[in-house]
Amino acid sequence: MVEEESLRVVRCGGSELNFRRAVFSVDSKYVFCVSGDFIKVYSTATEECVHILQGHRNLVTGIQLNPRNHLQLYSCSFDGTIKLWDYIDGILIKTFIVGCKLHALFALACEDSVFVIINKEKPDVFQLVSVKLPKSSSQEIEAKELSFVLDYINQSPKCIAFGNEGEYVAAVRDFYLSVYFFKKKTTSRFTLSSSRNKKHAKNNFTCVSCHPKEDCIATGHRDGKIRLWRNFDDEKKYTYTCLHWHHDLVMDLAFSVTGSSLLSGGRESVLVEWREAAEKNKEFLPRLGATIEHISVSPAGDLFCTSHSDNKLIIIHRNLEASAVIQGLVKDRNIFTGLMIDPRTKALVLNGKPGHLQFYSLQSDKQLYNLDIIQQEYINDYGLIQIELTKAAFGCYGNWLATVEQRQEKETELELQMKLWTYNKKTQGFVLNTKVNMPHEDHITALCFCNAEKSENPTLVTTSKDGHFKVWILTDDSDIYKKAVGWTCDFVGSYHKYQATNCCFSEDGSLLAVSFEEIVTIWDSETWELKCTFCQRAGKIRHLCFGRLTCSKYLLGATENGILCCWNLLSCALEWSAKLNMRVLEPDPNSENIAAISQSSTGSDLFVFRPSEPRPLYIQKNISREEVQWGVFVPRDVPESFTSEAYQWLNRSQFYFLTKSQSLLTFSTQSPEEKLTPTSKQLLAEETLPTTPFYFILGKHRQQQQDDKLNEALEDELVQLPLTENIPAISELLHTPAHVLPSASFLCSMFINSLLLSKETKSAEEIPDDVSMEEEKESVDSDEENNFTEQVQDTNNTDLGKDIIHQLSKSEEKELRKFRKVDYSWITAL
Amino acid sequence: MWGRGGERRAPRVASPSAGMGEFKVHRVRFFNYVPSGIRCVAYNNQSNRLAVSRTDGTVEIYNLSANYFQEKFFPGHESRATEALCWANGQRLFSAGLNGEIIEYDLQALNIKYAMDAFGGPIWSMAASPSGSQLLVGCEDGSVKLFQITPDKIQFERNFDRQKSRILSLSWHPAGTHIAAGSIDYISVFDVKSGSAIHKMLVDRQYMGVSKRKCIVWGVAFLSDGTVISADSAGKVQFWDSATGTLVKNHLIADADVQSIAVSDQEDSFVVGTAEGTVFHFQLVSVTSNSSEKQWVRTKPFQHHTHDVRAVAHSPIALISGGTDTHLVIRPLMEKVEVKNYDAALRKITFPHRRLVSCAKKKQLLLFQFAHHLELWRLGSTVATGKNGDTLPLSKNADHLLHLKTKGPENIICSCISPCGSWIAYSTASRFFLYRLNYEHDNINLQRVSKMPAFLRSALQILFSEDSAKLFVASNQGSLHVIRLLEGSFKHLHTFQPQSGTVESMCLLAVSPDGNWLAASGTSAGVHVYNVKQLKLHCTVPAYNFPVTALAIAPNTNNLVIAHSDQQVFEYSIPDKQYTQWSRTIQKQGFHHLWLQRDTPITHISFHPKRPMHILLHDAYMFCIIDKSLPLPNDKTLLYNPLPPTNESDIIRRRTAHAFKISKKYKPLLFMDLLDERTLVAVERPLDDIIAQLPPPIKKKKFGT
């Protein structure tokens, strides 16, 4: 069983992919990007994450290919180390300990040192220093030999560029460009007229890039201009030319590999290619969705990559066609909808890019898809009041989705729209069914579906500040052309003109609770009769929810004044109340548990309790320093079996929460390394295999394994999938040079045997027909042996499993030897 | 408020603490003057002078060493549209135009030396050979004609291979062996020796993917390495290899025509002007610091014009451009300027550096000089009074009294109205006109004084004496005529002949209010002072390095005040024949550095009749009263002292007061004079009004509109 460590708060994916420029491998097969404490290796063709390079203890701040060995990657981090990786295998080769926080990394071909940005003294003074990387065979090396290059620079690596194979380095900050020539050891500095002059108020430098072939420096500016500097080795004779298309600041610049074109991007979300650096000769790739933060160019020159503010990488072909999109969790906007779980895909659903709902897979840390709700072109401009997607709810096991969007330009001009989407099985997506203009007179404060199993008619309730709650039901909307269904308003309820703030259906759908400011009203969902009211006079109700399962007779309400009340619906009386400044109140759909997160001055605390008793089951103090905005229980596919009472609430569901700075966090008892599935390694093995007939057999072989895997428990997965490389027969087959291999006829039997050895008994039936019966018999013996070990393995932990693999290979070797004997006799007979 | 009317105002012109009263100011904005657009500019490296020709045929010579002062001009002619202008053989200036004539100008006598028909139809282009001995013209009929420049004339030598269409641009190879000729849709390269076209380089008609009808090569430049640079109507600047006749590089720089090109003497930079008003600078820069390979790179664009840039020139330290919007813009190249001085700032020359307005003080009349007519206006008047700074309502609007059109196609050179308002004189290049005006109530009777003497054919400057009894005329032969005016007739009194050996024309005249002294100045030599009573040369003020821009003789003291183009002001006592003490003091101490950096030359000097210590002078952007009794400012004091707040004590005001009291309220100021002790007249010409009268510029999409 899983060892129970203490429960920890862990970051669960969704880190920024756009923090630094992405880096391409030399063959353009992979693209690397920093992601929190990790480096992710993506395949440019399939958009899949191939590797996650883990090892840094803090934010990774820079990556660069090793210029001397393009199969290696340097990375630097706030933890003060520079690490060298073999990215093909995902192995850490070396760690250089520098000691101070590293903000960026640059590596040059001609130097045996790398350049990093550090800040030593004052918090805002950054320096570019070169770090000599000592040659040593040990894993961890101290690299303390720093030599100073440039002072008072910008901390962003976009503001530093090396040119002409490292002859000079250009750095920009505020209103000046400094160029340091390594050979001459001189610095030239060029200053633009500063903000005092109104015309040049936005002259600030934002980024810099150097021409790969010529002495030409391109700089981006806050007013959208790009300046191309030449003759900068002479402080008097320098000259520059301007390219101006962007209307807002230039976020990043990159020259193509040959230098024939310059790429620029900014808030316009348009990639601009300036051919031959001419103002009139430019190409555009528009509608990239979000601000371009970084641009990088593959060393082969065939691909570009843009990083966007909505946590997305776009791989762009040389002819300016987007070829792949790597999308992380979109995080650059306010989350109004809260966290939801799509009942079908079990994906986390929340506000995504403007006007969209994003479906984000928590398991694979990947965005599944975006659902365009507002369906209008987003115009990116300051001061423009956008339509906001404010509410969303799933109903009827994911068959229906209700969304609310609003736009308010002035106090009196409110535009509201409610949309109801139905799940279309054919297209596997949501299709707009009903659009309701102005469903209420004022802001909609809550909406919820009646999710009771017995209810044959889908019901939706919306509450609004206009003092009403409305009940919407699905009705027949057929006409002579087609059969259709649509939503109409069935009932409008109100209570003394108070604003309706929350609504909630009981688990069986028989009761509806609607809160009107300080008062909670209970309605019969059959007749829409007001059953009873609860009033505690403890402030407006902020959260409302019914208990579940055995606790379904309780109703919970949290008020703004920090009181949590629990009413008994049978006695219509207050059961208990507690003082708790609640931010999140989230019931677990699979149990009676309710999670509450309270906000205090020191941080946020988590309480898990059952409505039946006021004593919490579990308390975790200080789960986050900042305010927690949303939380959600995600049902587990496979229930955990925590025996400890304190963790039992995590058995059936996992709890995720989102803080104000939009980090998605969860609770885990495992170390983060364990959490990740080893699929990445398999993918890599697959890629290194040549596409031979062997490969196809192997492929089939794996598929079978994967099918089996689905039926088996998750823990077994690690052991169940012996890697193809680990089977010596196969690796021998693949890695021995062809001219020293024995003839294929007897390699074949050996190979087939190796496959059989690692299989269970039942899979023996699935062996291809062309395998002779003799071999099958032989394999049966070993299968039995194998069966036994597998049982052992089931009851053992993972460490033991590895040993078994080792054992297996030994038995195989025995087999191999046996075959060799036979073969020799056969040869002598010839 | 801007309407046709002389607004009366009572602004405080300068600090009143010095006992200087306040003035009522006629703010005149009805001088509807529009300068002609610039067609050609030609820079002469030897003398550092710039010749500028305008669309009305006027040719102006600017002295770049003397703060870009417009020291000479040749009046225009209706039939002489100049299309090409070039310097040859050092100091000789040629122009050619659509009437098919080549004209040489006499820079000493300020007239046309000769005009010669090239017999090839309208001439579109002209270029002098690098040696200066040959002149090449490109004609409408496609012929390129070579002329030999002889010491006193030019002589036709031969024709080159005739091309199909007009030759719009010409350029010599610096060695003089080849020429490049831009035509419509192609560029020809000729061998000078044989006169045959050795290459014909076709220019792409494509314009942003759309095929335009014709591609006109507006400019070509031949570099010594054999590269030909062309500028064409499709917005391209192209580099051609003349040895092979192939296109080397193409820069698409504009959506409209590229109309002009000029290369520096070092051939390391060139400049092109476009119809969008943008001037682009191209520079030859090395590809990398450690290689000798160089490439042409478009560097900075300059947008100082609103309309077509028809002509550009490249001086060693500046880019010069001019176009339809009538400005001459001199943009210094910062990397070439050694010290921060007058040359280091951007200069924009819009108005001529000579007087176009004259004033009859007693009758409150203003005479405006246009290219082909004169206008006489009577100023409005008011009975209202007001506080300092108020705009007073007019009780009587300004009257347009007279519109006098010239006869013939020639432009007016100069004009003047007598102080009494009863005489008007003006001159064109070939004729002199004198009119007598009679005022009968509201009617004006204009009577031409006929039978002008033969020697009075053309005048460069005309001046009436203060009592309107004498007329002084500076003719273009360097002589000065003194004429006594009688009722309806005149009498020639005397002619001051130029000193032997010089033929320099006098451009500026000044007469003393008592009528005894006449000062006259040419373009370079010193100021001559004549005694009008005795009709002899009294003295000559020592020559100064910079040309004189304005002259005036003070009443009573007979001090001659001289302003030069380097902004120096001298005061010379005529009776004592020496500089006055004040002038020596200010020369010793030096002028304020901001005073010396002013943009435009002083064009008019006058005096206050009751305050002998005051000198009133103005340039296009300021009006200044120099109070000789106050201490001079040094470089630390504020030159343009803002009006001190009235509540401050007199002591503080007196402490900050200095001799220069400057008002920048009226600009651009074409004329300012004292009508009487308490009234000033200021003639302004707002630039917006000029732009409003120009043809609309090429419409450019502006982002966000």
From TrEMBL, chain A:
Repeat (WD) residue spans along the chain: 53-95
Region (Disordered): 763-800
GO cellular component: small-subunit processome
Chain intervals with Polar residues compositional bias: 788-799
Keywords attached to this entry: Isopeptide bond, Nucleus, Phosphoprotein, Repeat, Ribosome biogenesis, rRNA processing, Transcription, Transcription regulation, Ubl conjugation, WD repeat
Alphabetical list of Gene3D superfamilies matching this protein: YVTN repeat-like/Quinoprotein amine dehydrogenase
GO MF, any single term: RNA binding
Localization of this protein: Nucleus, Nucleolus
Alphabetical GO biological process terms: positive regulation of rRNA processing; positive regulation of transcription by RNA polymerase I; rRNA processing
Keyword field contains Plastid: no
Acidic residues composition-biased segments: 766-787
PROSITE patterns (alphabetical): WD_REPEATS_2, WD_REPEATS_REGION
Residues covered by the WD repeat-containing protein 75 second beta-propeller domain: 339-662
Top-level taxon: Eukaryota
InterPro entries: Beta-prop_WDR75_2nd (IPR057644), WD40/YVTN_repeat-like_dom_sf (IPR015943), WD40_repeat_dom_sf (IPR036322), WD40_rpt (IPR001680), WDR75 (IPR053826)
Free-text function comment from the UniProt entry: Ribosome biogenesis factor. Part of the small subunit (SSU) processome, first precursor of the small eukaryotic ribosomal subunit. During the assembly of the SSU processome in the nucleolus, many ribosome biogenesis factors, an RNA chaperone and ribosomal proteins associate with the nascent pre-rRNA and work in concert to generate RNA folding, modifications, rearrangements and cleavage as well as targeted degradation of pre-ribosomal RNA by the RNA exosome. Involved in nucleolar processing of pre-18S ribosomal RNA. Required for optimal pre-ribosomal RNA transcription by RNA polymerase I.
PANTHER family for the chain: WD REPEAT-CONTAINING PROTEIN 75 (PTHR44215:SF1)
Assembly and binders: Component of the proposed t-UTP subcomplex of the ribosomal small subunit (SSU) processome. SSU processome is composed of more than 70 proteins and the RNA chaperone small nucleolar RNA (snoRNA) U3.
Protein name per Swiss-Prot or TrEMBL: WD repeat-containing protein 75
Species this chain originates from: Balaenoptera acutorostrata
Gene that encodes it: WDR75
Automatic annotation (TrEMBL), chain B:
CC terms in the record's Gene Ontology section: 90S preribosome; chromosome; small-subunit processome; t-UTP complex
One example GO MF annotation: RNA binding
Gene3D superfamilies cross-referenced by the UniProt entry: YVTN repeat-like/Quinoprotein amine dehydrogenase (2.130.10.10)
Keywords, in A-Z order: Chromosome, Isopeptide bond, Nucleus, Phosphoprotein, Repeat, Ribosome biogenesis, rRNA processing, Transcription, Transcription regulation, Ubl conjugation, WD repeat
Subcellular location: Chromosome; Nucleus, Nucleolus
One of the protein's GO biological processes: maturation of SSU-rRNA from tricistronic rRNA transcript (SSU-rRNA, 5.8S rRNA, LSU-rRNA)
SUPFAM superfamilies: Quinoprotein alcohol dehydrogenase-like (SSF50998), WD40 repeat-like (SSF50978)
Main location: nucleus
Pfam families named in the record: WD40
InterPro entries given in the database record: Quinoprotein_ADH-like_sf, UTP4, WD40/YVTN_repeat-like_dom_sf, WD40_repeat_dom_sf, WD40_rpt
Function (record text): Ribosome biogenesis factor. Involved in nucleolar processing of pre-18S ribosomal RNA. Part of the small subunit (SSU) processome, first precursor of the small eukaryotic ribosomal subunit. During the assembly of the SSU processome in the nucleolus, many ribosome biogenesis factors, an RNA chaperone and ribosomal proteins associate with the nascent pre-rRNA and work in concert to generate RNA folding, modifications, rearrangements and cleavage as well as targeted d Involved in SSU pre-rRNA processing at sites A', A0, 1 and 2b.
Subunit structure: Interacts with HIVEP1 Interacts with NOL11. Part of the small subunit (SSU) processome, composed of more than 70 proteins and the RNA chaperone small nucleolar RNA (snoRNA) U3. May be a component of the proposed t-UTP subcomplex of the ribosomal small subunit (SSU) processome containing at least UTP4, WDR43, HEATR1, UTP15, WDR75.
Name of the protein: U3 small nucleolar RNA-associated protein 4 homolog
Species of origin: Balaenoptera acutorostrata (Common minke whale)
